[in-house]
Design goal:
The protein is α/β, with parallel strands linked by helices. It has helices at about 15-20, 35-40, 60-65, 85-90, 100-115, 120-125, 155-165, 180-190, 195-200, 220-225, 245-250, 290-310, and strands at about 1-5, 25, 50, 70-75, 90-95, 150, 170-175, 190, 205, 230-235, 260, 280. The termini are close together. Bound molecules: glyoxylic acid (2 copies).
Length: about 325
């Protein structure tokens, strides 16, 4: 069976080798992404493809790939894949959950601490040679220990944030479409609140929802206006969960104290004015980007592909509703 790998340098030693042991693997020879035209050409006869989060897997692409049985997305988020279109055509879609949880929470936590304690701004100051005298009143920063964390979306990564917050003696509020089971709430020491309460009470609002119609622009001008003026927004989920233009306005007018972002509405472009602000930290979508995590993502991508193309149900199938009508290998 034929498998397409659109991006040659996907990390994880196991990925291309692992697929190569089982399938006829076609790898993009260039170190760039495939152009859309190339992608539409290369996908026509493949049984499976590995997709990256910056590639759009939509009806147009699925329609030119009549043999395609599975798309293994190399990410936990799969908003780049039109899952309904895949399901309608009998195509399975898989992702890489669990293995990215800790790395993503670690990074969101790093962003939280860095923005609260002005790590990036003061690094720039120190290396610029402007530091002449130690002054106790300079760069007075926010507190972290003992403050209130608001977690939007208590899934795997949201729960990992709550675990970290315990070490900082934080009060942890969360909102979600429904409350978590009491056992989870008790273990994590978290309290379910509505979004309004979370926005009004949190010193740090951190986003851990998937991107979908219900979460698009969840953090808009109205939401930002409810936050404390001393509060910070952390986003390591998906860019379009935040109305980036509204965020620029809120940061510029100091409506909120700051933000730290790993993701953007139109990656890799930034909303106008964002990069000029000094109360925001901007990093280039690195949530899952740790060595061990990338290796594990490769391993489970191979596992999902192998099981899907041998007729089984892959462990990380995101559209189980496809099963009765799936294209069989
Ligand atoms: C990264 O953004 C992921 O979804 O894994
Ligand atoms: C700070 O360096 C302190 O000693 O308090």
């Amino acid at each position: 069976m034929k498998v397409l790998v659109t991006y040659r340098d996907i990390p994880g030693k196991g990925l291309i080798d692992g697929l190569g042991q089982r399938f006829d693997v076609r790898v993009n020879p260039s170190s760039d992404y495939m152009s859309r035209e190339q992608l539409l050409r290369e996908v026509v006869d493949v049984d499976g493809m590995v997709s990256l989060l910056s590639e759009r897997i939509d009806a147009e692409l699925l329609d030119v790939a009549p043999a395609l049985k599975v798309v293994t997305n190399y990410a936990v988020g799969y908003n780049n894949v039109d899952v309904a279109a895949a399901t309608a055509r009998g195509v399975m879609v898989t992702n890489t959950p669990d293995v990215v949880t800790d790395a993503t929470a670690d990074l969101a936590w790093a962003l939280l601490m860095a923005v609260a304690r002005d790590v990036v701004v003061t690094d720039r100051y120190t290396r610029s040679g402007k530091w002449k005298l130690w002054r106790p009143e300079a760069f007075m920063a926010a507190d972290i220990t003992g403050t209130t964390l608001g977690i939007v979306g208590l899934g795997r990564i949201g729960q990992a944030m709550a675990k970290r917050a315990a070490g900082f003696d934080m009060r942890v509020l969360y909102s979600d479409v429904s409350p978590a089971p009491t056992a989870i709430e008790q273990r994590l020491g978290v309290t379910f609140v509505d979004m309004d309460t979370l926005l009004r009470e949190a010193d740090f609002v951190t986003l851990h929802v998937a991107l979908n119609d219900a979460t698009y622009h969840l953090i808009d001008e109205t939401a930002l206006s409810k936050m404390k003026s001393s509060a910070y927004l952390i986003n390591a989920s998906r860019g379009p969960v935040v109305d980036e233009r509204a965020l620029v306005n809120a940061l510029r007018s100091r409506r909120i104290a700051g933000a730290a972002l790993d993701v953007y509405e139109n990656e890799p472009r930034l909303a106008e004015g964002l990069a000029e602000l000094d109360n925001v930290i901007l990093i280039p979508h690195l949530g899952a980007n740790s060595r061990r995590t990338r290796e594990r993502m490769a391993v489970i991508t191979v596992e999902n592909m192998t099981i899907a193309l041998s007729g089984g149900v892959p462990p990380n199938l995101v559209n189980p509703e496809v099963l009765p009508n799936r294209r069989v290998p």
